[in-house]
Structure formats: C-alpha cells, structure tokens
Design brief:
The protein is α+β, with helices and mostly antiparallel strands. It is 49% helix and 18% strand. The longest helix is centred in the middle third of the chain and has 44 residues, at 276-319.
Length: 794
C-alpha cells in the first residue's frame, strides 16, 4: 500500500473522527435492523416445524365402543371409561404404535377471580405410556397424578379466570349424562393452579360468541388430576378419547388392522389427529409473517444502501478536496481509491461487529405476533447463518459503496460548481418556475421513496380492507346463517322450529378428520334444511343433492387435482363400515364447520345419508337465521336464555383468525417505508438546495426575497410529491389487489379484493402534506443563508 495513502487516510480520520464515529453507528443500525428482521423471518418460517419437533403431535385418535352397544342408538354406552381402558390396553400391544394417552372430560363449574361462575368441560389424563409429548408450560409445572388438589390451566383459560400459578381455584364437580345434560353441581372442591400451559387452542382466538354474551372458558382449559377425577368426577358422563403415536414407518391402517383383529366384536374408529389441520393453518400464517419480515428486511436494506451511499458521498466530497494537490505532486490517480479503502475498512469492520452483537441481543425479543406465541425455543439465540453472512454483507456493501463513490467522483471532479442559467422573462409565479427548474437533479431518489410509501400504504389498505370485508359477513367464509346451537336432544329441533325469533334453520353435521395421502386433513360436512332457505355457500357449480355427488372446498380440490365435473374415488373414514363412493364433483364450496381448523378452503360437502355412512357418531348442530327486523340485543338475550352456553356465532376459521393476528404486518411495512421515504425526500431536498445555493444567492442578489426562496423549495417538494402520487397510487391499487389474490388463494377464499377509495386518496394527500412539511426546514435554511458567504465561493 502506498505510504502516502496511509498518511492521507490517517490525516482524514483525525480531522473527521466525529463523522467517522457517526457513520459507524449509522451503518451498524442499518445492518442490525436488516439482520434482525432476517433472523425473525427465518425463525417464523420454521417455528411450527420446530414446535412439533419439540412437542410431537399425535398421529391419530382412537375411539371404541364395546360389544353389544350400537353407537348409532346408544352413543353414551361407548363412553364408559373402564371399557375404553380395556381397548387402550389392547392398543398398547400393537407393534405399530409407540405411545398413547387416554383423556376423558368431566363437566365442572369454576369460579374466576371476578366472582363469576362458568361452566366448562375439564380434561383428565387417565392413562398414558411411551414417549408421550408433554404440554408447553408458560409457567409452573404439571400436576401430580396422585394429588387431587392440583390442576393446570391453559393460557386462555387463565386469562379468562384471572388466575396464575399459585392461586387457588374453586371447582364444583357436576353430575351429568348425555341424554339429560348436567343434573347437579354440588361437589365443591378447591384446587391449586400449579402450571399454565400453551396448547394448540391457545395459539389462535377462541370461538366467537354473540355480542353481550360473556366468553366461556375453553373445553379442556382446566386439566384436573386423575386423583381428583376418582374422588369427584366419576358420576359424570364425558367424552373419552385416546391419542396415539405411530412407530416409525407405520400407518394408521396398520394400527386399525391390529385392533380389528384383537377386538373383532367392537365398534372401532381410528382417524387422524384432529388438531393437525390447526398446525397446517398456523404454518400458512407464520409463512406469511416470515415473508412480511423478509420484505421489511429488504426495504431497510434498500433504504440503508441509499442513505449510507449518500452519506459516504458527502463525506468524500469534504475529505478528498486536496486530492488534486497530491496528484499534481506526482501521486498516482489511484491514490484516492487506496485512501478510501483504508479509510472505510475500519468503519466497515467496526459496524459489522456492532451489528452482529446487536442482532444477537435482539434475538431474545423475537419473533413477535403469532410466530412468537408458537415459539418454544425462547431467549438468547445465535443464528450463525445470519450473523456471518450479515456481517460479511455489511463489510462488502460499505466497501463497495465507498470505492464506487470514489471512482465516480474521480472521473467527475469534486470542485465543479454549477453554472447559473435562468431567464428573466417568464410567465407565472417566479417561485414556481425557479423551484421546478432542473427538477430531476438530485430529487428522483426522493420521488422513488415517497412513491414507494404511497404504493405500500395503498396496498396495505387494500389487504386489510379485503380481510375485514370477508370477516364482516359469515357467508364470505362459508356460513350462511347467524347462530350455531349445540343440540342436547332432538326435541330442541322441534322447539326451535316453533320459535318466532328464528326464521330459518338447518342441521349441520360433520365427520371426524379424513386423511388422504398427499392431501391436507379435511372434514366432511352435511347441511340439512329444516325450515327456510339456509343453503351452502357455492363458489361454482351447485350443492350435492344425490348420494353420489360431492362438493369440494378450493384448497382440497386443488390438492386432489380435481375440477367441477370430475369423478372422485371412494372415501374411507377408517371404521368398520365399507368405503363410500365414487362421487361426481358437482360444485366448489366454502366450508364452515364447528371445528375451527376446518374451512373455508378445506373440506367437502355431501348429503346427510353419505355423511352418516362415513361417521355415524357425531351429533348435529342447529344453525339458524333470525328475524332481522328485531334488535340484535333482544335476539341474543332470547336465544341465550333458551340455549345458554351452547349458543355461538359462526366466527372465522383458524386461517382467517391467524390472518387477523398478522394483519398489523402490512401497516408495519407501510409505516417503515413512510419513515424511510420522509428521510429520503428530506435528504434529497437538502442536497438539492445545497447544490443550488449559488443559484439562489444570485437570484436573491437580483431581488428574490427569502420568502420566494422558501416558496421555490416548497414548490420543488410539492412537485416531487405529486410525481410520487401519480406513480404510487396505481401501483398501490395493483399491488394490493395482487397481494390479496395470493392470500385468498392460500386460504381458499372466493371474495375478490376490496379497494377503498379512502386508501387511494389518504396516502396521496399524506404524501403531498409530508412533502410540504419536509420542505420547511431546507426552505428556511436556503432563504436565510448569508449571500456574502455563498457568493465568495463562486
């Protein structure tokens, strides 16, 4: 390296050490922001796979009914815990499963800290074996099986009840049967909360309830010990479910065959684990969040390159003014490049180290949102891929910008001054013509930034408005009714038919989950009209009316590679009944079922006769439309008095709820771009005014006032904002529509994008107002600069 270059670089560092320090901090902030957003994106894209690896999901669900009991006629006879444990012991001998657990449910009344009593089904772990995955504990620990005074609650239940680890929880056991419901709640007990868990249901919002009705504690939100159940809960009749984990390479069909062989006279059902689709929906949502974070990283990177490049150029203009003197003394013309390399090597290295350290520290706080709630590997994290590549990128980008700027400046010269050329004879306001003259000189970067902000805000408004448009009407996500009622007996159907408030009603019934190789797990539903005109939501084609017809939801149809008019093979639910089919696909439909992880884009619809053949166990739900002329509060109060906690509204499914949880991401991106646009335009105006300072000085010496100079800068900023609006508004509309179509395709929605006029006007008005606001500072500075100081350098 040339010794003169080392001396020159040393001299520059001594003279401009403050500017060097600020440049290091600025580059480090940009690098840390990009690397952190990148790291959060990587974690969000893998959070569900990492969660399921740490807490493996069950592969299937096993339900049994002993010999002599017909599940169609006496489903309650299938819920005997002792007989289910008998079938569970047979399952343990299957070579195709490695772990299983048996749950039952017991109705309880629980008192929250607010003094209100709530009815809920408590969960009880009766038996387990093998490597059964444990719950994820937010705090505390699991309850001891032999301790009747210990219990755990889910995160959502803890929030609803207002309890935390160490609190006591009054619990009253209730006697109940399926036919007569809850009969008495008299066995009062008190348990201690020893742990708060975050289960599958805690990752998404709970089912919707009508306005004015208090949200209920989710079923299985309270888990009592087996000892408590033996003392207080055995008089209750609740559902019994066995979850199982397959041996490596085994299938549910093989487990099913083992059980049929060992229990030939039993009614058996082996189906996929019903919460698996919930994690499929979470994977789609966290993938969208990961892409949003990646976009944020790219925006910060782009803006950072622009700002750092402009900052380096400004510093080089000041620091290389004596380059010509060195050249005239015989130095090589490449000397300036050598100086720049030495000057910025330390800057780049220091900034890279600071950025990597900041990224590692910030890893403790992310990712946020739905990905953060699903995260099981919290705390400090070293992502060596991000840290190594990010640090190398900081060094490479800084050195590249510095060297390129040095080469360009070496060719153009650093001491050139712009010649003042303007005409005295013109029409129109002088400030307007002076402000718009040579407009493109230095302002296009600002125009680009503001245009990007306008486009991003418009796209974000379109995305969020389209999502609200879907959520505002239940028909848009598959439910053409107002309320859903869980039936306890068939007599409620006759009572509802006579209810003057109810105008339309139908019976909605769903099977358990289906697993078809290569197809995401889905549910099959049927909708039987009882009175009025409640019908399925059909996207294309029609609803099935014959037993050999079927309608598929968009995602399920795409996964099967089918279209309306094609033929679909047999469906086998995994019980002893023969498979059903084939079917003719007569329509594409949106699915809504009581299971929130089903629909709107996944699922199938058949006639009730076919659904009963596939799965005869589930009880139907009553779906109703009410008299729209009556006040909603009166309707809700009336239905709540009659049906109580069994009354819900058909809220959005998991996919839509997850989208709502990450709906702030577009606004975050828009706000970030707007902030960067403000900085870009402000910097561009400052540079533009500085470059034209001699011209403004000449104009002022010929009679231009300080106010006219300020107005000229304002006109310059306003024209920049207008150009950005002309480009940004249509790009925002196009981008928002395109983004929503991608989202709707992933979720399986049929609603097109909604482009509110306000979100085309507000960003435009905001851009113009922002441009005028930013121009105030540079305009005042240009109008107050002393003429003598400026003209002396001419």
């Amino acid at each position: 390296m040339n010794p003169a270059a080392a001396l020159w670089a040393r001299s520059i560092l001594r003279r401009h050490w403050r500017a060097t320090f600020l440049l290091i901090v600025f580059i480090a902030l940009v690098g840390a922001s990009v690397m952190t957003a990148w790291e959060y994106s990587r974690r969000a894209s893998t959070v569900i796979s990492r969660r399921t690896a740490a807490l493996p999901l069950a592969d299937g669900t096993f339900q049994s009914c002993p010999p002599g009991v017909d599940p169609d006629a006496d489903f309650a006879g299938c819920l005997d815990v002792a007989r289910n444990l008998e079938a569970y012991n047979v399952l343990m001998r299957s070579p195709h499963e490695v772990a299983a657990r048996v749950f039952t449910a017991v109705p309880i009344m629980v008192d929250g800290k607010d003094g209100k009593t709530r009815s809920v089904l408590a969960g009880v772990l009766i038996a387990s074996h093998g490597p059964v995955s444990q719950a994820y504990f937010v705090s505390g620990r699991t309850a001891v099986d032999d301790a009747p005074d210990q219990a755990t609650v889910s995160e959502s239940a803890a929030h609803s009840l207002g309890v935390s680890v160490g609190d006591t929880l009054p619990v009253t056991a209730c006697a109940s049967t399926l036919s007569e419901g809850v009969q008495a709640c008299e066995d009062h007990t008190t348990v201690h909360v020893v742990g708060i868990t975050r289960s599958e249901s805690d990752l998404v919002p709970q089912l919707s309830v009508p306005p004015g009705v208090e949200g209920r504690v989710p079923d299985y939100g309270v888990m009592v010990s087996a000892a408590w159940y033996r003392l207080h809960g055995t008089v209750a009749q609740g559902f019994v479910t066995t979850n199982l984990w397959l041996a490596p390479g085994a299938t549910l069909d093989e487990v099913r065959a083992d059980l049929y062989t060992a229990l030939p006279k039993w009614s058996l059902l082996v189906s996929p684990y019903e919460d698996s689709p919930r994690f499929t929906a979470l994977t789609r949502s966290t993938g969208l969040q990961a892409r949003s974070l990646w976009i944020i990283a790219m925006i910060i990177l782009t803006a950072g390159v622009l700002f750092v490049g402009q900052t380096i150029v400004r510093q080089l203009r000041r620091e290389l003014v004596d380059r010509q003197a060195f050249v005239s003394l015989g130095a090589d013309r490449r000397l300036a490049t050598s100086v720049v390399a030495l000057r910025f090597a330390g800057v780049a290295a220091a900034a890279a180290v600071i950025a990597a350290a900041a990224t590692a520290g910030l890893s403790t706080f992310g990712p946020t949102g739905i990905a953060g709630r699903a995260e099981v590997q919290r705390g400090f994290r070293l992502d060596w891929t991000v840290l190594s590549l990010g640090a190398a990128g900081v060094v490479f980008a800084t050195m590249t910008l510095a060297i390129v700027a040095s080469v360009v400046m070496g060719r153009s010269g650093v001491n050139e001054t712009a010649r003042v050329r303007w005409r005295m004879a013109f029409g129109g306001p002088p400030a307007l013509l002076v402000g718009t003259r040579r407009f493109g000189h230095g302002l296009w970067v600002g125009v680009f930034g503001v245009g990007a902000a306008v486009a991003t805000a418009g796209a974000a408004g379109t995305l969020v408005a389209s999502l609200h448009h879907v959520e505002s009407r239940s028909e848009r996500y598959g439910a053409s009714w107002d309320y859903t009622i869980a039936l306890n007996d068939e007599a409620q159907v006759a009572e509802a038919s006579k209810d003057p408030v109810i105008t339309d009603l139908a019976l909605l019934t769903e099977t358990g989950p289906f697993a078809v190789p290569g197809i995401p797990t889905f549910w099959v539903v049927s909708l039987q009209g009882v009175r009025g005109g409640i019908a399925p939501v059909i996207v294309s084609g029609r609803a099935p009316v014959k037993d050999d017809e079927i309608a598929l939801a968009p995602i399920t149809m795409r996964a099967m590679g089918k279209h309306v008019g094609d033929e679909l093979g047999v469906l086998d639910f995994g019980n002893a009944a023969a498979p059903v089919g084939p079917f003719q696909i007569v329509g594409e439909t949106l699915i809504w079922s009581v299971t929130p992880s089903s629909g709107p884009g996944s699922g199938a619809m058949v006639t009730e006769a076919v659904r009963a053949k596939l799965d005869s166990a589930p009880a139907p739900y009553l779906v109703v439309r009410t008299d729209r002329s009556l006040p909603q509060s009166r309707v809700v109060a009336h239905l709540n008095d009659i049906y109580g906690v069994s009354l819900t509204v058909p809220g959005p499914q998991d996919d839509l709820r997850n989208l709502r949880l990450i709906s702030a991401a577009p606004w975050t991106i828009a706000g970030l771009v707007a902030a960067l646009a403000a900085g870009t335009l402000g910097h561009a105006l400052v540079v533009s005014v500085r470059r034209r300072r001699h011209e403004f000085a000449v104009l002022r010496s010929l009679g231009f006032t300080s106010g006219q100079v300020q107005h000229a800068v304002s006109w310059r900023a306003l024209l920049a904002g207008a150009c950005a609006v002309v480009v940004g508004v249509p790009l925002g509309v196009i981008g928002g529509r395109w983004a929503w179509r991608l989202v709707a395709h992933d979720v399986g929605l049929a609603s097109g994008p909604v482009v509110p006029v306000g979100w085309a006007v507000l960003p435009a008005a905001g851009a113009l107002a922002l441009a005028m606001l930013i121009s105030i500072g540079p305009g005042i500075s240009a109008g107050r600069r002393r003429l003598v100081d400026v003209l002396r350098t001419e």
